[in-house]
Design brief:
- Helices cover 43% and strands 23% of the residues.
- It has 282 residues and is α/β, with parallel strands linked by helices.
- The N and C termini lie far apart (80 Å).
Length: 282
């Protein structure tokens, strides 16, 4: 019995010591910066859209293209030495926060509008684009005022600022919601709703490519910004992105991205009203 009494404290001490050592090992691992982890992996995982042309889409050859993709490739080049060292992860609007929280991506660059609500869930870097909401509708039944949607169906993508804006400011307007951007445009073509409420950049681009539809309200609500986002608390990666945007501003890189991916859609008229260079609003 005495032997057992002597052994029990010894066993407890060993268990506690192992726990402390395990804790120290865990802390050491956790102290590794997210930048180091990305470099060790050899790939940076960036969430982009697959169906939001010209900002993020998959072309006929299965390659990721668009404004957000163009900038994301430069991030990979400057961080890892090769723009091909980016793994594009396809997301929809509603899954962007969840993909960051579950570590499926390092950065979201899926035309992510900065909002106060989202700031509670993710950390936004400095912005690279300005945006507001807009309304597109058929030429045969144009919507030129938000009030004209009362008693009609407004088509929106789930998880977007358009959904939030209508819910908060116009709860009496019925919303027809879809997961994918391709679905909202098909719904408008099929006449399932009176108009689409979405980012004005998106509806202007789509209307130009689809005769028979008009952006009757080119600017709705206040002006917002688009920015990369990282998981809440990932300061290492956040600081790297902000420094990168500052450096890219010195070579007017975001303007170059616009010329390469957006100029054919919007022309020169929209460049200065959309682009934010160096991560800073004028």
């Amino acid at each position: 019995m005495n032997k057992i009494k002597r052994i029990i404290p010894l066993v407890v001490s060993i268990v506690l010591a192992l726990g402390v050592l395990a804790g120290c090992g865990s802390n050491t691992s956790n102290n590794k910066s997210s930048i180091d982890e990305i470099k060790e992996r050899g790939k940076i995982k960036i969430g982009v859209f697959s169906d939001k042309n010209p900002f993020g889409y998959v072309d006929a050859d299965g390659k990721n293209q668009g404004f957000d993709v163009y900038i994301a490739k430069r991030f990979a080049k400057d961080l890892l030495g090769d723009e091909s060292k980016v793994e594009f992860v396809l997301v929809d609007a509603a899954s962007r926060v969840a993909y960051l929280e579950s570590n499926k991506v390092d950065i979201i660059m899926a035309n992510f509008t900065v909002t106060e609500d989202r700031k509670q869930k993710v950390d936004f870097a400095n912005p690279y684009m300005k945006v507001s909401l807009g309304i597109v509708s058929p030429d045969s039944a144009p919507i030129t005022s938000i009030d004209q949607l009362k008693g009609k169906k407004a088509i929106v993508a789930k998880g977007t600022t358009a959904e939030t804006y209508l819910t908060k400011n116009y709860p009496d307007i019925e919303q027809l919601k879809f997961e994918q951007y391709t679905e909202i445009f098909e719904a408008l073509k099929d006449g399932r709703g009176a108009a689409i409420v979405n980012d004005n950049t998106e509806v202007i681009a789509w209307a130009k490519q689809n005769p028979g539809f008009t952006v009757g309200v080119p600017s709705l609500g206040g002006q917002d910004t688009i920015a990369p986002a990282v998981k809440k608390g990932n300061k290492d990666l956040l600081d790297w992105i902000n420094n990168e945007l500052t450096a890219l501003g010195k070579e007017n890189f975001i303007h170059k991205a616009y010329d390469a991916t957006l100029a054919d859609v919007y022309g020169e008229d929209y460049k200065e009203s959309l682009v934010i260079e160096g991560g800073k609003l004028e």
